[in-house]
Specification:
- The complex is a heterodimer.
- Chain A has helices spanning about 10-15, 25-55, 85-120, 125-140, 140-155, 190-215, 225-240, 265-290, 295-305, 310-340, 340-345, 350-360, 365-395, and strands at about 170-175, 175-180, 180, 245-250, 250, 255-260, 260-265.
- Chain A is mainly alpha-helical.
- Chain A folds into three domains: about 10-55; about 85-180 and about 260-395, MetI-like (MetI-like fold, Orthogonal Bundle); about 190-240.
- In chain A, helix 3 (about 85-120) runs antiparallel to helix 12 (about 350-360) and helix 12 (about 350-360) packs antiparallel against helix 13.
- Chain A starts with 9 loop residues before the first helix and ends in a 5-residue tail after the last helix.
- Chain B contains 14 helices and no strands.
- Chain B has helices at about 25-30, 35-60, 70-75, 80-95, 100-120, 125-145, 160-185, 190-205, 210-225, 230-260, 260-270, 275-305, 315-325, 335-360.
- The longest helix of chain B is centred in the last third of the chain and has 31 residues, at about 275-305.
- The chains are: A mainly alpha, B mainly alpha.
């Protein structure tokens, strides 16, 4: 409680210091003043709000969540009809947010790592191109980039009739991207089960191989045996069950492409914008992380006879990761929060659905609180997970 | 073995290695070192040859510059920069009265001048306050009018670049004192104050800016006494200030944490109280080392002001979209978007270069 942190406390009060100079008492008074002021302000705001709500005869409370929404949602991971409730509409929005964020995080990480390493390339041209990418994407507002991509997708891409087909079966047009998917078959279930088991087996093998390396010094062979353990049993089961593989390929019917899976132009533009923008930031983090590992580490590894790839994998990257992980986490969080810009291009994410709900019901306080609470929860979950991961890879000092 | 250690004849001189000034030597060292890099170089060169000449043809040789009609643009195969010539007043100044648009122009000059003067380290101190008060004062007199014979212009007509700059500059300026209090509060030993600061910072940093802007535009009017109407720009500005304060507080906290404990102890030994210690000893040092990250926060804020377009404020982005609402010119959206992308890019790029320069020049001092 002591203000000065000097260990002065009640003792000094008794030794002749007047009470209002006692740091402990001053601390208590300061906090009481702050709390009283805060309560007064909050009370004033709440009072105004209640008066205003009464005047506009808006009912408060979350009962509107059970009412019929009455609007359609363009893309939904779970079935949604206009007769469903607002609550379900918000859930659809949340799932859409999570979908675009997760895919965006994967793409941004892949692109960011490649560009970050490219900036360090000894090839002048590669390094220059990568730094142009970083300087351009980081210095233009994301919203503007989103509008740009969205207008490109919806205006410059050909109409469905003359859709681009870069790879047979993959159709790109004004109305989005359509691609083939595997038609589900009951026999796929055991194949997937075997695959899951083999992945576990492969990791057991890896642990075993590492233990043998510690005991005998034999360098383990990992890549091919692990691939074999993962793929072969599943492949065998797949062939034994008669290899039922049917692709649902988009096909042009009279007006439209039918079949296959599809993503909307809104999703495409949002995913493109988010990944390209965030990749620029991740690239800088990766670059500075690798640069932060002293050159002596690489030299020492070379002196010990590590090959170039092993130097990177065993010596440099584990150290660089410790520097890279924390800021990357906050970029993942940023990407998730930035996915809320979907509302600007009409992708039905949480904020977009929440905004529609707000406008239809007039329940501003409730809708905004729901949105904020959900984002806050996502943020806390991601940072909790990344803190756990960070602790796992953090330097264990003796 | 031993006789080979000495040599009777002189070793013939080897050819001078190709130095870095020699283009062939440079290319060999930087473009064709190893088969992989050579392959990459060739691939990238091919890509550049494939992309760059058509782009230059589109952007320059086949483009339509100056004043032209949409039909002339459609006839040409290149870019239609005429859309910028036609719409630049709308893009830059929004719906501000046309004859009065010299005022936002000088308003931009005032704000940019204020920012440029702030870059000079000689003015870091009380002069900074004067510069910002003057810059913002001139800006508001010019934009709002009503004095000095300037006709009053209501804020719902403000727009374009001046609005974008105003939201960012006022955002950072008003957030700064709040951020200092929050940062000090977070490190305070008083439990309630530190809990409140942590709660505020984490809450704001955990939600997207757009939800705060929604809060500003939908909830702020409810918070006000009946009959009080707050200006739409002010609502967004409040949200931006709240947002910037949380991020800035974390940056300043980083600076506070970098200071050694001895500074606090020395100040206490001199008999300084809490505010004297913070104001005279701790903050001057902490703020100095946080200036580069503060500039970076400002760059982020400058980009984030574009989100006010979603709550229908005519900033640079929304003004451009309104300009593109003209069906005659709509198809030339790439040119219009490129135009404002360049504006944003120039501001952000030079600010980030300045921040990097500061980081280097400030790093010469002792840090911890």
């Amino acid at each position: 409680m002591a203000r000065e942190g000097l260990g002065q406390s009640a003792a000094t009060a008794s030794s002749g210091v007047v009470w209002w100079r006692n740091p402990t008492i001053r601390g208590v008074i300061a906090q009481v003043v702050v709390v009283v002021l805060l309560v007064a302000v909050v009370w004033y705001l709440v009072h105004n709000t209640i008066t205003n709500l009464n005047e506009r005869s808006i009912r408060t409370g979350f009962s509107f969540l059970d009412q019929e929404a009455g609007f359609a949602i363009g893309e939904a991971l779970i079935a949604f009809a206009p007769t469903d409730t607002y609550g379900r509409a918000l859930l659809v929005g949340l799932l859409n947010t999570l979908r675009v964020s997760l895919i965006g995080i994967v793409l941004a990480t892949l692109l960011g790592v490649v560009i970050g390493i490219a900036r360090l390339s000894s090839n002048w041209l590669v390094a220059k191109l990568a730094s142009v990418y970083v300087e351009v994407t980081r210095n233009i507002p994301l919203l503007l980039q989103l509008f740009f991509w969205y207008t490109i997708v919806t205006q410059l891409l050909p109409a469905v009739r003359e859709a681009l087909e870069p790879v047979p079966g993959v159709v790109l047009s004004k109305s989005g991207l359509q691609f083939p998917i595997v038609v589900g078959d009951p026999t796929h279930l055991p194949v997937l089960g075997v695959l899951a088991l083999s992945i576990v087996a492969a990791f057991v093998y890896r642990r075993h191989a590492y233990r043998r390396q510690r005991e005998t010094g034999q360098e383990p062979r990992l890549l091919w045996p692990m691939l074999a353990i993962i793929c072969l049993p599943a492949l065998a089961v797949f062939l034994v069950t008669g290899a039922p593989l049917e692709l649902d390929v988009p096909e042009f019917t009279r007006f439209n492409y039918r079949g296959g899976a599809s993503v909307t132009p809104e999703f495409l533009a949002l995913l493109l914008g988010l990944s390209i923008y965030t990749a620029g930031f991740i690239a800088e983090i990766v670059r500075s992380g690798i640069l932060a590992v002293p050159w002596g580490q690489t030299e020492a590894a070379a002196a010990l006879g590590f090959r170039r790839g092993l130097q990177l994998r065993l010596i440099v990257l584990p150290q660089a990761l410790r520097i890279i992980v924390p800021p990357t986490t906050s970029n993942y969080l940023n990407l998730t929060k930035n996915s809320s810009l979907a509302v600007a291009i009409g992708y039905p994410d949480l904020v977009s659905v929440g905004n529609t709900t707000l406008n239809q019901t007039g329940q501003a306080i409730e809708c905004i609180s729901i949105m904020m609470a959900i984002y806050l929860t996502i943020s806390l979950l991601i940072s909790a997970f990344m803190n756990w991961y960070n602790r796992r890879i953090a330097l264990v000092e003796r | 073995m031993e006789e080979t250690l000495t040599r009777e004849t002189q070793t013939p001189a080897r050819a001078r290695p190709r130095g870095s000034r020699d283009p062939i030597g440079w290319a060999r060292a930087n473009l064709f070192n190893g088969w992989f890099n050579s392959l990459l170089t060739i691939l990238i060169l091919a890509l550049l040859v494939w992309i760059v000449p058509p782009f230059i043809r589109w952007a320059i040789s086949d483009a339509v510059f100056g004043a032209a009609t949409p039909d002339e643009c459609k006839a040409a195969s290149g870019a239609c920069w005429a859309v910028v010539t036609e719409k630049y007043r709308l893009i830059l100044f929004g719906r501000y009265p046309f004859e009065e648009q010299w005022r936002p122009l000088f308003g931009i000059v005032a704000l940019v001048g204020m920012a440029l003067l702030s870059c000079d380290r000689r003015f870091w101190g009380w002069q900074l306050l004067v510069i910002w008060a003057l810059g913002l004062g001139i800006f508001f007199v010019l934009m709002g009018g009503g004095v000095l014979g300037l006709s009053p212009v209501r804020t719902n007509l403000w727009g374009g670049l001046p609005l974008t700059l105003m939201l960012a500059f006022i955002g950072i300026a008003a957030a700064f004192p709040i951020a200092i209090l929050l940062a000090l509060g977070r490190r305070s030993k008083l439990p309630i104050i530190s809990a409140l600061s942590v709660g505020y910072i984490e809450l704001i940093r955990g939600v997207p800016l757009i939800t705060l802007l929604f809060m500003g535009s939908f909830m702020l009017p409810l918070f006000m006494p009946t009959g009080v109407d707050i200006d739409a720009i002010l609502r967004a500005q409040v949200a931006i200030i709240m947002f910037a304060a949380a991020y800035l507080a974390e940056v300043i906290r980083g600076g506070l944490q970098a200071l050694p404990k001895g500074q606090h102890e020395a100040a206490a030994a001199l008999g300084l109280g809490y505010w004297q210690t913070q104001g005279l000893i701790i903050l001057p040092q902490a703020l100095k080392i946080t200036i580069p990250p503060i500039v970076n926060t400002f760059i982020g804020l400058f980009k984030d002001t574009s989100l006010v377009a979603i709550v229908s404020l005519t900033d640079l982005v929304l003004a451009t979209r309104q300009a593109l609402g003209d069906p005659e010119w709509r198809q030339f959206f790439i040119e219009a978007y490129l135009f404002i992308m360049v504006i944003y890019w120039v501001f952000c790029f030079f600010m980030s270069k300045y921040s990097q320069h500061l980081e280097r020049s400030l790093a010469t001092d002792r840090r911890s």
